[in-house]
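User: I've been trying to design a sequence by hand for this structure and keep getting stuck. Would you show me what you'd pick, starting by listing the structure so we're on the same page?

Assistant: Good idea, let's start from the same input. This is the structure you sent:
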């Protein structure tokens, strides 16, 4: 095992890219941030300069750099698959934010490229690295709740909804938001496969944009081949803060994870009992983001596969794709299956 920090180039200097850069520099000693690439004028420098990294306006420059071992892709989702392939062909290990592509074929091609190049490939399903969700899965795998029967996972974004609803791409609630919940449910039900879904969705937060295709509220029922039933739900607007929770009910008990609070502190005063809640993903999930980048770096150092990769990305997106088809047809829809070596 090498103890040399993994040299990382970040692709994409938007909101989440900037957060990832800060986490890598300040919280992940197994890695070092070398470069930040973003074609928008000044965007890369705004992130790179305060962190001591160099700024590039060209992705190709980062991929060609001899001092970059791996890339973190935080660019637009529509570019993810293409960037994964390019990075793999350049011999760089790849961490990509979810989703790894916008179709199942794109994800399969991206994974194939990383396998052909023998580079490490990890996808950003951060809940797997949140301490409470990890403890919940441990309870399931240790048999402490018996056989899995019912599951639930939810994501509620903070605030009053998107400021520009017209800019939200179609099906975002499934491919960008609930994709986390689909992976979480798969992970909390190890060894089982989702077999079909029935989805319902509407524009309850911004109803004026329903005719333009906006869906900002959704509920999905998923059936698994071990008999378990799961519910995934999402909303683009939670007035009280960022809300991420999970639950697994079994024949011998139940385990839950997530409550949105920033600490275990509770205030008791004349107004009652209150807790401070997180107002965003980068606040609530900062330890999880730290954990996933540490896993990525250590997997590279140990020359092993990361604990979450292309197969997981494909399986979660297969559920998202089935949800889209269920909305379009108004029926229960089968989830695509694939047998991988």
């Amino acid at each position: 095992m090498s103890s040399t920090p993994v040299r990382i180039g970040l692709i994409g200097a938007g909101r989440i890219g900037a957060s990832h850069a800060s986490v890598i520099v300040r919280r992940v000693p197994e890695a070092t941030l070398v470069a930040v690439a973003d074609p928008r004028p000044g965007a890369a420098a705004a992130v790179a300069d305060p962190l001591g990294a160099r700024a590039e306006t060209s992705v190709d420059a980062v991929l060609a750099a001899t001092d970059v071992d791996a890339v973190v892709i935080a660019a637009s989702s529509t570019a993810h698959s293409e960037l994964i392939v390019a990075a793999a062909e350049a011999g760089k290990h790849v961490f990509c934010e979810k989703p790894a592509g916008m179709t199942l074929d794109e994800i399969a091609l991206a994974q194939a490229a990383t396998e052909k190049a023998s580079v490490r490939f990890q996808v950003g399903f951060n809940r797997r690295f949140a301490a409470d969700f990890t403890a919940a899965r441990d309870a399931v795998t240790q048999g402490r709740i018996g056989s899995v029967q019912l599951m639930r996972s939810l994501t509620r974004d903070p605030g009053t909804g998107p400021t520009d609803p017209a800019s939200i791409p179609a099906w975002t609630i499934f491919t960008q938001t609930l994709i986390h919940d689909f992976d979480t449910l798969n992970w909390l039900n190890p060894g089982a496969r989702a077999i079909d879904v029935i989805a319902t969705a509407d524009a309850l937060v911004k109803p004026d944009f329903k005719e333009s295709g906006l869906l900002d509220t959704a509920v999905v029922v998923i059936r698994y081949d071990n008999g378990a039933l799961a519910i995934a739900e999402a909303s683009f607007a939670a007035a009280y803060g960022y809300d991420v929770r999970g639950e697994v009910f079994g024949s011998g008990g139940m385990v839950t994870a997530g409550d949105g609070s920033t600490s275990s502190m509770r205030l008791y005063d004349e107004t009652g009992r209150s807790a401070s809640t997180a107002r965003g993903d980068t606040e609530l999930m900062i330890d999880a983001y730290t954990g996933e980048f540490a896993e990525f770096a250590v997997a590279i150092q140990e020359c092993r596969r990361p604990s979450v990769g292309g197969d997981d990305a494909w399986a979660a997106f297969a559920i998202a794709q089935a949800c889209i088809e269920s909305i379009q047809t108004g029926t229960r829809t089968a989830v695509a299956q694939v047998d991988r070596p």
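That's my pick for every position. To get oriented when you compare it with your attempt: Residues 310-329 form the longest helix (20 residues). The chain has a mean pLDDT of 96.
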